Every structure is written in structure tokens, then in C-alpha cells.
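B., you asked whether I could sanity-check this one before it goes into the benchmark set. Here's the sequence:
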Amino acid sequence: MATPELTLPQLLAGLNHRDRAERLAAALLLGQMGKAARKAVPALIETLKDDDRQVKRAAVLALGDLGPDARAALPALSNVLLNDEEAILRRRAAVALGRIGAEAAIPALEEAHSHDDDQGVQDVTAAALAEIEGRAVRRAA
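And here's what the prediction gave me:
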């Protein structure tokens, strides 16, 4: 099996490949790499602009899989949560924000929880808020 150091450049290049399947696979694999892929956060943020909805979904998932290492993605994920037309992407963005766990995500999660018409988004934002707020309480204790 290749080491993350050897595959990261290939996966980063894959995010920009003209073939949709290559971009999708690259995003999914980066999410599976965990901390070894934290240098991919800027490229994954850029991938949130991909025209292909599945590639965009995979980038959202990958950022969530990176957890706190993806803090730089908070503004971009908040934008997806608050503005994307597809409810599944808004839900996945809320999950990613919860996994990243930064208190800076709370305003966007609260806004989506209060104003999104999709019950699934409301449910997931509530769970993400509880996850973030639970971490803050544990740190304060």
C-alpha cells in the first residue's frame, strides 16, 4: 500500500482532473486518509465549487472526515449550509461543521436550524450544535 506522502500529490491532482470519476475518487480517498490529508484542505475547499453535485458532496464529506484539521473550511461549509439548493448537501455541510467542532460554526448552524425548511437539515444542525457545545463544556470542565 502506498504511503500518504506518496499518494497525496496524486490525489490533489485528481481533484482537478477533467474526468468527473477521477475528481470524485480523489475527494473520497482524501477523506479516508485522515490527518495525513490536512494539506488538502485548500484544494477540497476549492472543490466545493465543482459543477458536479457528487464531487461537491464528496468534498463536503472529506472535509468533515478531517475534523478539526479542516477549520479553514468553516466559511465555505457555512456557505454551502446556508445557500446550497440541495438539501442533502446542506445536511452534509452541517455534519461536517459538527465534526470540525469549531465554535465559529455555531452562528451558521443556528441560522440554518431556525430558517431551513428541510426537517433533515433542522435535525442535523441540532445534532451538530449539540456536538460543538458539548465539546466546549468538556473543555471548560
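One thing to flag: Residues 5 and 36 are 8 Å apart (CA to CA). Otherwise nothing jumped out at me.
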